[in-house]
């Protein structure tokens, strides 16, 4: 099974256990958050040797994050630490109706934002590996942007496959113009591009999944575009294997939407690395995305092999 690499910022997640605005809530639970951390956990649970590249503070949250990832089977040898920067944090409100919960990010000048290329000079991405990058890692700082491009260059030189999830976070960028330019620049360097429909519209100026996919497929590097369509499933277009739509998995009660896109990426990329056909791969992606809607945690829904076999073909309640 292929080795899997990803880079990002893991954060300590404090989730409110009571309704109300975050400034009035007294009770919270602690867990792990971060788009790339979610993907790393999901891939590890499916049996991939997963390397997570990051930096945390030498504080209690940094130690908690490393311990949590190791307990999930993620290889943490490339997580460094900083005594001069703190671990990022996110505080999430309790959503009672399944809508997007209010969140507060405490990540400015975080340890992860201080990552440099020299921190990971010993990382070797071999030809039978896969690298997953998100737009969040690009946005953390100019140094992390440079680092992401350096890792992509290493992966390209070795012949490893590369996927990219834009994961748009406007608050992390100085301007929308800079954001669009940077995200599209990275997307055009990768093999698999995984935007949501609204993200694709913003980044390309087009409105339909077909037009968005064609925009990215104009790059010689991009071979597959998969566009998340929410309750309408997903659209895919592969340069050699064609295009199509996959229906969404029915979810009767949505608990929390956070982490659904990361789960979708886990389902899609894992299936492609296992050489499943496109319909099966996107079908697994929609299943993983749907299960994420049924729990509050960012990564609690991510399935292992046994759970995946049981869940295929299920209706979620």
TrEMBL record:
Example of a GO MF term: kinase activity
Family: Belongs to the carbohydrate kinase PfkB family.
Cross-referenced CDD domains: KdgK
Organism expressing this protein natively: Vibrio gelatinilyticus
Domain of life: Bacteria
Alphabetized UniProt keyword annotations: ATP-binding, Kinase, Nucleotide-binding, Transferase
Keyword field contains Transferase: yes
Pfam families named in the record: PfkB (PF00294)
Record's keyword annotation contains Kinase: yes
Residue ranges annotated for the Carbohydrate kinase PfkB domain, each copy included: 2-302
Protein name: Sugar kinase
